[in-house]
Amino acid sequence: MAMPPNVPTSADNPGRPPEMPLPPGATRGPAHAADAFFDPAEMAAAREQLRVENGDVRTTAVILDQLEASFGDGEEGFGWDAQGWIGGDITRFWWKSEGEGAFDGDVEEAELQALYSRAIRPFFDFQAGVRQTYRPEGDRTDLVVGVQGLAPYWFEVDAAAFLSNKGELTARAEAEYDQRITNRWIVQPRAEVVFSAEDIPELGIGSGLSTLQVGARLRYEFRKEFAPYVGLEWTKSFGGTADFLEADGKNSEETRFVVGIRTWF
Questions:
Q1: Which pLDDT does position 26 carry in this prediction?
Q2: Backbone conformation region of residue 210, classed left if phi is above 0, alpha if psi is from -120 to 50, else beta
Q3: Who contacts 240 (Cβ-Cβ below 8 Å, separation ≥6)?
C-alpha cells in the first residue's frame, strides 16, 4: 500500500521529537484488511461515505461582485460583474458574466462564460471553456483558457486568453485587493488590462494594449453577504482602440463615479 509523502509543516522544527520509520510489516498485506472480517460491500460503502465527508464535499456559490450605476461625462449607465461555481475542492464548474449599458439605451456589451476549473496549486485554478459575447457591432463565441486564484499578499487574480470564432486572439487580466479599514468598512482597489493580438475594426479594438481600467470601491458590510458601496473608476484606451473611439466621437479617457451593491450566497 503506497504511503503519503512526508510533507514538511510548521511543526517540523529542531525541537520536535524525531519520527521513527514505520515497521516493515506496516505496509504489507491487503489494501483493505477489514474486508477479511466484515462484509466487503458494507466496507466499500463505508469507505465511500468517508471519502464524501472528508474531501469530496460539493459546494455552490453565487457572487455578485458588482451591481452598480455609473455617472460620468454627462452619461448615466449600469453594469454588473457576477460569477459562481458548483463542485469540490479539485474540480468545479464555473460561470462568469459581466456587462454594461446606458439607462437611456440598450445593453452595450454583455458576456457569459462556462468553464471547467481544476486546482493546479493550493490557491490557483486552471480554467478552460467557452465565452459568448453580445455587442451591437457583432457577437462573438470564444474559446477560453486562463487561471484564477489568490496571489501572495491576498491579491485576487483572474487572467484569461480568448480565441474567437473569427480567429481573433485577445487577453484580459484583472486583480483586486480587499483592504480592511474596520471589520465593516473595506476599500477594494481594482485594475484590469485588455490586450489584442490584432486590430479588430468591427469591434473598435486596436492591437497591443487596448484598455486600462483602474478604480477603487469603498463598501460597508451590513453582513458578509450584503454590502453597498461607492467608488471611482478611471478608464483609458490606447493605440488603435483610442483612434476607433475618437473616430466615433467618443472619449478615449473617462472617469466615472459608481454606486452599487455587492452580495453573495
A1: 74
A2: alpha
A3: 199, 205, 206, 207, 208, 210
Which pLDDT score is estimated for 23? 80
| Partners of residue 197 on adjacent β-strands | none
Q: Can you say how many angstroms the Cα of residue 86 is from the centroid of all Cα atoms in its chain?
A: 13
Backbone angles phi and psi of 43, in degrees to 5: -70, -40
Q: What is the pLDDT of residue 1?
A: 45
CB 78 within 8 A of CB 68: yes
The owner of cell 477594494 is: 188
| pTM reported for the whole predicted model | 0.80
Q: Whole-angstrom Cα distance, residue 107 to residue 99?
A: 8
Q: Cell digits for 161?
A: 486568453
**Weakly modelled stretches of the chain, pLDDT under 70:** 1-17, 55-56
pLDDT at 20: 79
**Cβ-Cβ contacts under 8 Å for 109 (sequence gap 6 or more):** 99, 100, 101, 133, 134, 135
Burial 212-240 (b: 16+ CB within 10 A, else e): ebebbbbbebeeeeebbbebebebbbbbb
Integer angstrom CA distances of residue 49 from 53, 89, 122, 130, 195: 6, 17, 24, 34, 47
